[in-house]
Specification:
By secondary structure, the protein is mainly α. Helix content is 79%, strand content 0%. It has helices spanning 18-48, 53-61, 65-81, 83-100, 107-136, 140-168, 170-189, 212-220, 225-254, 259-278, 280-286, 289-305, 314-342, 348-377, 379-403, 405-408.
């Protein structure tokens, strides 16, 4: 089936130059780091205002509300108006919203801010993914480097925010997020795009509204075998991460690990994840990408499900978690590469929006399902049950790929 077309006018793609490539890497670093800054500082700020655990949970969860419903619309906007232009707008919006937090310390207002800033910051990360797909033209090696630099943002941002929070206080910390957004805005503005075509000229307000055709056009991409395969891999990866984020930390606290110990474990894993991304180009040249993605995703699931069997050993748990994140570091650029090469240039934003919607669904469903399992049978059974379910999904996906390998040949 042919990919649906949403525009008869070809989208101007940024040229593959060193300048565009390096500033695309910077966009990945700052957009991923921006998300980490918000993830860390907002719960601390809510706690300082006397919010209850339930209120903090609602505050954190509200970040994904608009993204789930509008990610496809956001991707279509990038295809229609130009990725750079849309990303500049949402980068500026994120900085301004972050600066508002310390001056509006009321929970209902904070929830509204979270809903808005969750969408704007996710749009920035979507924009960074779309820009690298356009600039690198789907090359897995360059996309792997992009993922590596994005992980640097993950490592730097919490350290920087913790320092600002401890030394200068909450207000300066939030203003630090605004300053981070300014630097990101300047980086994105340096990416050169053609002067004519989509992404230039005036924008009418009607173009900013969600369109049913955007959603139907994006959903039609699922009928492309490569897109269906990568969405299935992405769903499984995010389901695994959702199980980890929901219950791995709970398990580690239950066996007596201090917060600093848990934080160091996750920091180490984040670093090796970045180095795993750097190997993606080499792996793609030596092995079939679908086989690698299924194998490493299944390996990641098995490692997480084996957590209770490691006897509470910090060394074993850190090695397991780091190896799991390394597998994910290899898989992510391959997934981005396959999707970028499977759809036309005027649908790069749409495929990112579809993937983000798919990921948000996994992040919503998995914690609820695992929560019921853990409540009824305990954490140990919960890890094993989720591992069995997700590995069964990988097995079914592997059989589907084997039967339809002709459709995936050459990608």
């Amino acid at each position: 089936m042919e990919a649906p077309e949403t525009s008869t006018q070809p989208k101007p793609r940024p040229k593959l130059t060193k300048r565009n490539l390096y500033f695309s890497y910077a966009a990945g670093l700052f957009s991923m780091g921006q998300s980490e800054l918000l993830t860390m500082v907002v719960p601390l700020w809510a706690l300082l205002q006397g919010a209850s655990p339930a209120e903090i949970g609602a505050l954190v969860g509200s970040r994904s509300a608009l993204t789930f419903f509008l990610a496809i619309h956001g991707g279509a906007l990038m295809d229609r108006l130009g990725t750079r232009r849309v990303m500049l707008f949402f980068t500026a919006m994120t900085g301004m919203l972050a600066a508002c937090y310390p001056f509006l310390p009321w929970l209902p207002v904070m929830v509204c801010l979270q809903i808005l800033i969750g969408f704007t910051s996710n749009m920035n990360w979507m924009g960074a993914q779309t820009i690298i797909a356009e600039v690198a033209e789907g090359d897995p090696g360059r996309i792997g480097q992009f993922s590596f630099y994005a992980r640097i943002g993950n490592v730097i941002a919490p350290l920087l925010m913790g320092f600002l929070w401890d030394v200068a206080g909450p207000r300066i910390a939030f203003l630090g997020i605004a300053a981070w957004s300014v630097v990101m805005f300047l980086s994105v503005s340096q990416i050169e795009t053609p002067k004519s075509g989509v992404g230039s000229g005036k924008v009418e307000w009607r173009e900013l509204l969600p369109k049913l055709s955007d959603y139907t056009g994006s959903l039609n991409l699922v009928f492309l075998p490569v897109v269906a395969f990568t969405l299935a891999i992405s769903f499984t990866r995010h389901a695994t991460n959702a199980a980890e984020n929901s219950f791995l930390i709970v398990y580690l606290k239950e066996i007596g690990f201090a917060g600093t110990t848990i934080g160091s474990m996750f920091s180490i894993a984040e670093i090796v994840n970045g180095f795993g991304s750097l190997t993606s180009g080499r792996v793609a040249r030596k092995f079939p990408m679908p086989l690698v993605m299924i194998t490493l995703t299944a390996g990641s699931i098995l490692l997480l499900s084996m957590t209770p069997l490691m006897g509470g050993s910090f060394i074993l748990l850190t090695l397991s978690h780091s190896l799991r994140r390394t597998f994910e570091g290899v898989v992510q650029p391959l997934m981005f590469s396959l999707q970028a090469r499977a759809v036309p240039r005027n649908l790069q934003g749409s495929i990112v929006g579809l993937r983000v919607t798919n990921n948000r669904l996994a992040s919503i469903v998995t914690p609820i399902l695992m929560g019921f399992i853990v409540e009824w049978f305990g954490l140990t059974v919960g890890f094993a049950a989720m591992g069995a379910i997700l590995c069964g999904g990988c097995l079914a996906l592997g059989l589907w790929v084997w039967r339809s390998k002709a459709q995936l040949t050459g990608v």
